[in-house]
Design goal:
Structural class: alpha+beta
Distance between the termini: 43 Å
Radius of gyration: 23 Å
Number of strands: 31
Strand order of the largest sheet: 20-21-22-23-27
Mean pLDDT: 75
Low-confidence stretches: 1-139, 488-506, 523-545
Helix content: 10-25%
Shape: globular
Number of helices: 9
Largest sheet: 5 strands, mixed
Length: about 550
């Protein structure tokens, strides 16, 4: 796999960074004298027992101290050159998921297959595919608790003030929970490590987060996603795929910040075209890219332009529009595609055949969709659409219930599910976050409106992104949106124009990435956190103003 210095795409991405530094400037490599290889500065080893006995455990405090001490170590320059195309082939060794779902027009036989119990699926597939690390994570998983509002822990604000209107466009936790990536209007992907103070009881020592990596794209970033098998213990699995306007799909090294590879999609005129949506297959062997009425599938171990084309519109039948979002079922060999034409299609992973086309219910183009952990439900949301719909895939076309949120923009407003699938969380354009308990939905499926169990104000501006930590009761939210100036009259004087600009600058802005604690908290931690909030709240508000 070629590095950033060996490809023209990597060079173009580096030169486009807003602050003039290369994407890997935050992670300068130094020589290590020890014979034992030390972890790079940009990443921290994953703590497998990070969330066991919060808030006070001596082992966690010692582990956090070790983690902080190793943060300054760096790898050798020879390690940077290790990313070759042959190594990408060794990363992906997961076998293809066997197809167990065959839907036909009668639908009865297929619904029986699709409605098999979750226990049977675990016995047949999941036990073989689970690694010891996955089993350990499940044992240490702590559920979310929404008996009270989540507590704000820390965040990043100053990072997004260097550029005018540098609002965020979502955030996503890494699959192993060791770090989080954010997208912003300056076309830079920023990676933040999980603060080591969260593993101890000294939450009052938390300071503003700073990114350890910056990866700059040349144009507007359409979509981005983590490699699903990512683990900080294996640097070869740490990479992020991103797609931007007029550029190929880039694979970014999440350890060093350089371009590891690129996938080049071409249209029927042999012109390079940009993917509007990205999603890795669950085993990481394939990368699905959404385009206008077509999905292109690249093999992860084989970068370049070779791909499989799967049209979503065949003989004027099927799903129209630009494929704006893609999601895979965790239990069945199928995936869902949402389009800007307001349609949702279910496809087979085996050959890309259309299994079901859901009725058009949204008022705007789809921007995000998610499967429930058991694979029975599909949640969809659109732009300028106040509804999040829950579809029953055991009876395709049936809406179980809807959830209301305020969406007055074309921007993607993400939503997320916790690991159990019980809670669905979403922000809105008013800055608040709503939490729904999907298990309290009426079983009869009368399409009733499901009321949120909790709502809290997370930001002063649009809360466009929300991501639930894989195994800790942590939430990450991102905020901001494009602010439009007041319309000016060309016949007015220059002083009047300046006054209009001043009025537009007075619009409330809150461009920030914030971490929230949404789990049980000990008395000592509660008191220390409350004291910190009371003492530092004016400072925090001033930073976010």
């Amino acid at each position: 796999m070629s590095g950033a210095g060996e490809t023209s795409d990597g060079a173009a991405g580096q030169e486009a960074e807003a602050d003039g530094e290369p994407p890997h400037g935050a992670c300068h490599l130094e020589q290590v004298k020890d014979d034992k290889e030390a972890p790079p500065a940009a990443k921290q080893p994953r703590l497998e027992h990070a969330c066991l006995d919060l808030p006070t455990t001596e082992s966690l405090v010692e582990h956090a101290a070790d983690l902080t001490g190793s943060h300054g170590n760096a790898g050798t320059e020879e390690e940077v050159a290790r990313h070759s195309e042959n190594e990408m082939a060794s990363v992906v060794q997961g076998k293809e998921v066997e197809t167990e779902l065959k839907w036909h027009e009668n639908g009865e036989e297929n619904r029986e297959v699709f409605a098999q119990t979750e226990e049977e699926r675990v016995d047949e597939t999941e036990e073989e595919e689970k690694s010891p690390e996955d089993i350990s994570t499940e044992q240490h998983y702590h559920g979310l608790e929404f008996s009270q509002n989540p507590q704000m822990l820390t965040g990043s604000w100053a990072e997004y003030t260097h550029t005018t209107e540098n609002y965020l466009r979502g955030c996503k936790w890494a699959p192993d929970g060791s770090c989080i990536v954010s997208n912003s209007a300056d076309n830079v992907l920023r990676v933040y490590n999980l603060p080591p103070e969260l593993y101890s009881s000294r939450w009052d020592m938390l300071s503003e987060m700073s990114p350890v990596l910056k990866m700059a794209e040349g144009e507007t970033i359409y979509d981005y996603c983590w490699f699903p098998k990512m683990s900080s213990m294996d640097p070869d699995t740490c990479f992020i795929a991103s797609s931007s306007r007029d550029n190929p799909v880039h694979i970014w090294d999440a350890f060093y910040g350089d371009v590891r590879a690129s996938f080049r999609p071409y249209n029927h005129l042999d012109e390079l075209t940009a993917a509007h949506s990205l999603c890795f297959s669950p085993d990481g062997s394939q990368l699905y890219c959404g385009f206008d009425k077509i999905v292109r599938v690249f093999h992860t171990e084989r970068p370049g332009r070779e791909c499989e084309e799967r049209p979503t519109m065949v003989k004027k039948q099927g799903q129209t529009g630009i494929i704006s979002c893609i999601a895979f079922s965790p239990c069945q060999s199928m995936y869902a595609c949402g389009s800007y034409s307001r349609s949702t299609g279910i496809y087979s992973c085996e050959d890309g055949s259309l299994l079901a086309l859901l009725p058009t219910r949204h008022h705007g183009g789809l921007t995000h969709l998610l499967f429930s952990p058991n694979g029975y439900h599909l949640y969809t949301g659109g732009r300028k659409d106040s509804e999040i719909l829950s579809w029953d895939l055991r009876e395709p076309g049936r809406v179980l219930f809807s959830m209301q949120r305020s969406v007055d923009t074309n921007q993607r407003i993400y939503f997320d599910l916790d690991r159990s699938g019980q809670y669905l969380l979403s922000g809105d354009t008013d800055g608040s976050v709503s939490v729904w308990d999907t298990l309290t939905a009426p079983p009869d499926g009368n399409e009733d409106l499901l009321q949120p169990v909790l709502q809290f104000q997370a930001h002063r501006d649009c809360t466009n992104g929300i991501s639930v930590h894989p195994f800790m009761p942590l939430l990450a939210t991102s905020s901001g949106q494009r602010q439009f100036c007041w319309p000016s009259d060309s016949e007015k004087s220059e002083s009047d124009s300046e006054e209009n600009v001043m009025i537009s600058d007075g619009v409330r802005k809150d461009n920030a990435l914030v971490l929230w604690w949404a789990g049980p908290v000990g008395s000592s931690t509660v008191s220390s956190t409350n004291e910190r909030e009371q003492e530092e709240e004016p400072t925090v508000l001033q930073q976010r103003a």
